[in-house]
Amino acid sequence: MKQQQQLFVNVDRLEQTIEAFADYGRTENNGVTRLALSEPDIAVRGYFRQCCEELGMTVTVDDLGCMYATYAGTEDVPPIVIGSHMDTVKKGGRFDGILGVLAGLELVRTLKDYGIQPRIPIVVMNFTNEEGARFEPSMMASGVLAGRFDGDTMLAKTDPDGITFGDALNASGYAGEQQHRIREATAYLELHIEQGPVLESEQLAIGLVDCVVGMVCYEIEVQGDSNHAGTTPMSMRQDALFAANDLMLMLREQLAPLDEELVYTMGRMNVYPNIHTVIPNRVVFTLEARHKDEDVVHQVEQIIGALPKQHGGCEVKATRLWNRNTVWFDAHVCGVLQQAVKTLGYSHRTMASGAGHDAQFVADFLPSAMVFVPSVRGKSHCEEEFTPYEQCAQGVNVLLEAVMLMQEKA
Length: 410
Hints:
alpha+beta
């Protein structure tokens, strides 16, 4: 099938669709709370199914609750899958996740507008529980599909009320069949808001994502000795908090020069006994670092490993909690997206994703790639999250152009 004309999505319709889906769980401050398999999530799934079936698509559900809406092609070949997730964090935004699902929906609507029946089938996909805001871990369903997580273990995961993921799935009416799991595809494409400030600050329309960065997380424990805050001379203290502060400064001074793209966060700290009249005897804090170059991540680990075992009269212990390697997306699919954005003439750059997405697990078994559109002020996972609808449409247009390129026979 040769592309006869340049196709563009309907911006106004896309805006109306985004807002209509945001009504399922909309908060007072125009955000969205739609936890996985909650009432709003079940309701929005029903609306998604309705929208797809109105287009003549066939909707199936796998045993993890993932939804697959198929727009038939003229040939029996592996489909082009376009997807993301519809669940949110508490008081999240209207764009995170859902934009990637609605991109597929709007893409199919546009093909219908132009009377185009694709050669390669198109599947619009909704992954279950990407956020992990109700059932940990995040990216649960895609992790099971990729063989990263054990299915039975995930079904037994509980929410804060003690409800298991399996029970919630059965109660939702979206416990489908394992035979419906996606196993092959021509390509998997995921459109997402950047969730960061780079594209906006550089006044660029599109981010072509070549990888999801590797990361490592350590817990650093400092063990001192408690005593009275008023009677113990400063020279005779084993203050775990003072020692921890020194270690944090050491780490920052050594990590900062490594690479300008390295990001690191000391995001959690617990101080014991946490009483203002008692010298702290124990402090535990975390250090998480992310970079696409695994050599840089290794250098971070070397710096952590070289921390003194004793400091300020306190014992110091560093323990790695977890890590992940950089996931590189499929070179051919990335190349098609590159060609699409050049054809459209949109300003763009290649970039890495610092956040996790279903695509990083899907890349284990399907040729995958991602596209970013700007986030105003880099805000995400909050009610202030916003991407102008024209920029959302540009992202969908990139996927649409890529899909049309893939439809052409060599």
